[in-house]
UniProtKB/TrEMBL annotation:
It comes from the Bacteria. It comes from Xanthocytophaga agilis. Pfam families: Band_7. This is SPFH domain-containing protein. Its main location: membrane. The keyword Disulfide bond does not apply. It is a single-pass membrane protein.
Amino acid sequence: MTREKLYLPLSGYLMVFVELITLIAGILLIIADFSTPPISLASLMGAFCLLAFVFILPGFFINNPNEAKVLLLFGEYKGTARREGFCWINPFFTKRHISLRARNQNGNVLKVNDKLGNPIEIGAVLVWQVQDTAKATLEVENYQQYVVIQSEAAVRHLANTFPYDDIDEHTDGITLRASADQVNNLLEKELNERLDRAGIKVLEARISHLAYAQEIAGAMLQRQQATAVVAARRQIVEGAVGMVEMALSKLSEKEIVVLDEERKAAMVSNLLVVLCGEKGTQPVLNAGTLYH
């Protein structure tokens, strides 16, 4: 596997000075030789200087910040020029431009099945950049397309690994909806493993879209509503039982009224109806005695 190695190009300004010297020297030698025929070695030296001028010219290039050039010589990798500014290299080198800037990718919304087989819609956004320029240009055909395909594969694998929601209410399990931080960390780790071959580093990966598929969204919404109603009822009943217990305890402690078991049962029933009912109850006042 090809790995990046740094290549240090020469300063372009220095080579511009050399270019000017070869150009001026070539012109002066040819002019001087033609003025004193016959043609001698000076003309050959002048022609050589002009050829050197033409040969040096294609070696100039500019590297902007966060850009690099992958250099090849007759199909052999020679290194990567990361030096910024005006530079010069061997004109026979083939230069492949590559950007080192961080890039955003908003992935497509995919329709997949979660661990429980429920169809869901999921999408992810990631931030990535090229770390190894040799791998990115020489190990894969198109590194940008490689990132797109591998990111979709990683999102699909993640969705198949965990359930969308904890239907069985096991709080110790990881779910796509409730364990967002853990899921994002696992996605980022898997993407870095998949994209290492292309020399790509994922800086951040987040689930950007998560929902049940349309065909089961209505049923799942009813289940969530039923779960919320049951949870609310459970809390109401627990509070009502506590209040009834407190009422009976206070009445017995302060000896306000002495109730037998039958009256206690009737009182508990009435209090639970009042406390747990969805609507306000209408009291019936007993104007006579407590006992018949």
